[in-house]
C-alpha cells in the first residue's frame, strides 16, 4: 500500500504540472482575466472568501494522505463508470446551495423527517455509493478525521480533473451538519425552469455568488445528462402556451422531441453537452449560444448582454479547438468560492463516521 500511495502522489504532482498554470490565472485575475465590469458581470465580493478554519492542506498532519486516497479511489471509479463524473460534480452543487457545504445532501431520512434526498430536485442524483466508498477508505486510514462535506468538495475537483478539466487547490476543514430537511432543498435549489435572472437574485446572490459565478458554474453542465422531465415544458408546453419554447433551435427541437416522446417521460436521459458529455470543456457554451441548451435557466443567460458575451466568447474558443484557459480559470475560482458558502468549521457540527447518518 505505501508504494501505491507513493505512486499516486507522483501522479498528483503530474496533474499539478499539467494544470498548475490555471492557479496563477485566477490568483492574479486583475492582470489576466477581463475586468468583470467590462463584462457587465459585476462582482459582489473583492476576492475569494477565506472562512476561519478553512484552508488548503487542512489535513496535512491529521490525515496526510487524505487527498491522495480520494484521488486514488476516484481514478478507479471514473475509469470504470465515467458517467458518474457529472452526478458527482452536481452532488457538491446541491449540497452547497442548501444551507451551505455541510454534507447534508448525504443524510438519509429518519422516521417522519424526510431529508434533502427526498426533494424532487434531488431524486435523480447519483453517486451516493461512491461517496460512501471513499469515506470508508478514509475511515480506515484516519478514523473520524475527514468530513463528508470535504469529501464532496474533493471528489468534485477530482472528477473535473479526471475528465480533462482544470485542477484547483481545495480549501478543507469543513464540518458536517446534523440536519437535512426536504423542504430546505425545495426552497434553495435553483430550478431549471426559472429564468437566469430570477435564479441569480433568488438563489445565487443570497449565497454570496454573483452573475459571473452563475454563468461560469452553469458551464459545469458540460458533464452529464438530464432526464426529459427537467425540460419537457420547453418542448411541449412552454409557459402554458401548448407550444415549444421559441428560443429553442428549430432544427434541434425535432431531435429532442424524438428522444423525449412525451411530456411525462421520467426515464429517458439526454446528454447536456452532446458529443462531449464525458469531457470537461467549454463546448457546452456552444449549445447555449445556438439555442440548444436544455434548460430555461441556461438558455436565458443569452437575455443578458454581459452573460451572453461570456457565453459567445467561450463558444468561440470551443469552436476553434483552443484551450479554454479563461473558462477553466474562472471555473476553478468559482468552485472555491461556492465551496466556502456557509461552511461549518472548528467546533461546529461534527465529522460523521458514515455520511448517511449523524453520529
Fold and architecture overview:
Pfam families: peroxidase. It is found in: Secreted. The protein is an all-alpha fold and 359 residues long. 45% of the residues lie in helices and 3% in strands. It is built from 17 helices and 4 strands. It has helices at 2-19, 22-27, 29-32, 36-39, 66-80, 85-96, 128-141, 148-162, 182-188, 196-204, 211-217, 232-236, 253-259, 284-289, 296-299, 305-320, 325-338; strands at residues 55-56, 171-172, 225-227, 269-271. The strands form 2 sheets. The protein has a two-stranded antiparallel ribbon. It has a two-stranded antiparallel ribbon with strand order 3-4. Helix 1 packs across helix 5. The radius of gyration is 20 Å and the shape is globular.
Provide a quick synopsis of the model.
This protein is mainly alpha-helical.
Distance between the termini: 29 Å
Measured on Cα atoms, how large is the radius of gyration? 20 Å
Which series of helices and strands comes N to C?
A: HHHHEHHHHEHHHEHHEHHHH
**Helix proportion:** 40-55%
Query: Largest sheet, if any?
Result: 2 strands, antiparallel
The rough form would be described as globular
Binding site for substrate: 190
GO biological process, one term: response to oxidative stress
Catalytic activity: 2 a phenolic donor + H2O2 = 2 a phenolic radical donor + 2 H2O
InterPro entries: Haem_peroxidase, Haem_peroxidase_sf, Peroxidase_pln, Peroxidases_AS, Secretory_peroxidase
Q: How are the secondary structure elements laid out?
A:
Layout: H1 2-19, H2 22-27, H3 29-32, H4 36-39, E1 55-56, H5 66-80, H6 85-96, H7 128-141, H8 148-162, E2 171-172, H9 182-188, H10 196-204, H11 211-217, E3 225-227, H12 232-236, H13 253-259, E4 269-271, H14 284-289, H15 296-299, H16 305-320, H17 325-338
Amino acid at each position: 500500500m505505501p508504494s501505491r500511495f507513493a505512486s499516486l502522489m507522483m501522479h498528483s504532482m503530474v496533474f499539478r504540472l499539467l494544470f498548475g498554470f490555471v492557479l496563477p490565472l485566477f490568483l492574479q485575475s486583475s492582470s489576466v482575466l477581463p475586468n468583470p465590469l467590462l463584462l457587465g458581470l459585476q462582482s459582489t465580493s473583492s476576492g475569494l472568501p477565506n472562512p476561519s478554519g478553512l484552508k488548503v492542506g487542512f489535513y496535512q498532519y491529521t490525515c496526510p494522505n487524505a487527498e491522495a486516497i480520494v484521488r486514488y479511489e476516484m481514478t478507479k471509479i471514473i475509469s470504470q463508470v465515467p458517467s458518474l463524473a457529472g452526478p458527482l460534480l452536481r452532488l457538491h452543487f446541491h449540497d452547497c446551495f442548501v444551507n451551505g457545504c455541510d454534507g447534508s445532501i448525504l443524510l438519509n431520512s429518519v422516521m417522519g423527517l424526510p431529508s434533502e434526498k427526498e426533494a424532487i430536485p434531488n431524486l435523480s442524483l447519483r453517486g451516493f455509493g461512491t461517496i460512501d466508498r471513499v469515506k470508508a477508505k478514509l475511515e480506515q486510514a484516519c478514523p473520524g478525521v475527514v468530513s463528508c462535506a470535504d469529501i464532496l468538495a474533493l471528489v468534485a475537483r477530482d472528477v473535473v480533473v479526471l475528465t480533462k478539466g482544470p485542477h484547483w487547490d481545495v480549501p478543507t476543514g469543513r464540518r458536517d451538519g446534523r440536519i437535512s430537511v426536504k423542504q430546505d432543498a425545495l426552497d434553495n435549489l435553483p430550478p431549471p425552469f426559472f429564468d437566469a435572472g430570477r435564479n441569480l437574485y433568488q438563489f445565487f446572490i443570497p449565497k454570496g455568488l454573483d452573475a459571473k459565478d452563475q454563468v461560469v458554474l452553469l458551464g459545469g453542465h458540460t458533464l452529464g445528462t438530464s432526464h426529459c422531465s427537467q425540460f419537457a415544458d420547453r418542448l411541449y408546453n412552454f409557459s402554458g402556451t401548448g407550444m415549444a419554447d421559441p428560443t429553442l433551435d428549430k432544427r434541434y427541437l425535432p431531435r429532442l422531441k424524438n428522444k423525449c416522446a412525451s411530456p411525462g417521460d421520467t426515464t429517458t436521459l439526454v446528454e447536456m453537452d452532446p458529443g462531449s458529455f464525458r469531457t470537461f470543456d467549454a463546448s457546452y457554451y456552444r449549445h447555449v449560444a445556438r439555442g440548444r441548451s436544455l434548460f430555461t435557466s441556461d438558455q436565458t443567460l443569452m437575455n443578458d448582454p454581459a452573460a451572453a458575451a461570456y457565453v459567445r466568447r467561450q463558444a468561440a474558443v470551443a469552436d476553434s479547438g483552443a484551450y479554454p484557459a479563461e473558462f477553466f480559470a474562472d471555473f476553478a475560482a468559482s468552485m472555491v468560492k461556492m465551496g466556502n458558502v456557509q461552511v461549518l468549521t472548528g467546533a461546529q457540527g461534527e465529522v460523521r463516521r458514515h455520511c448517511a447518518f449523524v453520529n
